[in-house]
Amino acid sequence: MRVMLLRFVVCSFLLVGFLCSADAPGQLTREEAANLVKQWLTTGGYPTGSPRFTLDSDIDRTDFPVFYFFSASYEQGQSVPTLGHFAVNQRTADLWDWELCKRLSTPSLRTSQKLLRSKMRLPTREFRESSKAAPCSGPT
């Protein structure tokens, strides 16, 4: 009980979002979002467990505040080609290639997203509304 009260006080008065957001219902953590990106890339044949693989958290964009942004790359000899630029909706766990303005999906990814949404206790109506958001301004 004291721990819950302390967390409430810290979250309410100090406004330290990263201490509160991980346990907040309806909110995906950055780590969970990164795991969705890795899952997508693994399905595509990229060895995300390799030390040559890098997944960087990009700077959050104020024009798309409900998304986490990532860039993936894979070191090959003298070059480090980019594998893609991704965005994950913090409320719905939707994964996007934000450069192509395209939602990404595979059967295994949909299963993981469904589990995350259940964990976040996301109501169906809120999911439908939140999933309309795209991390880009092009056609979806």
Q: Can you describe what's shown?
A:
This protein has 140 residues and is of the alpha+beta class. The protein has a single domain (29-130), classed as Roll (Nuclear Transport Factor 2, Chain: A), CATH 3.10.450.170. The chain has 5 helices and 5 strands, in the order H-H-H-E-E-E-E-E-H-H. It has a 5-stranded antiparallel sheet. A hairpin with a 7-residue loop joins strand 2 (67-74) and strand 3. The protein is globular, with a radius of gyration of 17 Å. The model is unreliable at 1-24 (pLDDT under 50).
Strands, helices and their partners?
Layout: H1 2-14, H2 17-21, H3 30-43, E1 53-57, E2 67-74, E3 82-89, E4 95-97, E5 102-104, H4 107-120, H5 124-130
Antiparallel strand pairs: 1-2, 2-3, 3-4, 4-5
Helix pairs in contact: 3-4
CATH superfamily: type vi secretion system effector-immunity co pseudomonas protegens
Integer average pLDDT = 80
CATH fold node name: Nuclear Transport Factor 2, Chain: A
How many domain modules?
1
The count of helical stretches stands at: 5
Topology, number of strands: 5
* Spatial sequence of strands, sheet with the most strands: 1-2-3-4-5
Structural class: alpha+beta
Radius of gyration: 17 Å
> Would you state the CATH class?
Alpha Beta
Range of helix content: 25-40%
- SSE pattern: HHHEEEEEHH
End-to-end Cα distance: 46 Å
Shape: globular
> How is the biggest beta sheet arranged?
5 strands, antiparallel
CATH architecture: Roll
As residue ranges, the low-confidence spans are 1-24
Q: What fraction of the residues are assigned to beta strands by DSSP? A: 15-25%
